[in-house]
Amino acid sequence: MRKEKAENERERLRQEELKKNALSSFGDGVKKSENGNLSDLTGGVNWKITLSIIIVLILVFFIYTIFS
Description:
The chain is mostly helical. It is 76% helix and 0% strand. It contains 4 helices and no strands. The termini are far apart. The model has no long low-confidence stretch (mean pLDDT 76). InterPro entries: DUF6366. The chain crosses the membrane at residues 49-67. It holds the Pfam family DUF6366.
């Protein structure tokens, strides 16, 4: 088996840690997002949760537009 590059190994370990602690990772990501790194914000969240958040934001926008 080929030895993994150090950079790839660090990224793999980081992703595993994000998956294990999704909620705390999300909070850390929100804090880090102020620096502009979106991958840390969504790294611990799977695609279904991300899609749900987008749909909720769109619905809130439409409801706001209708009632204002």
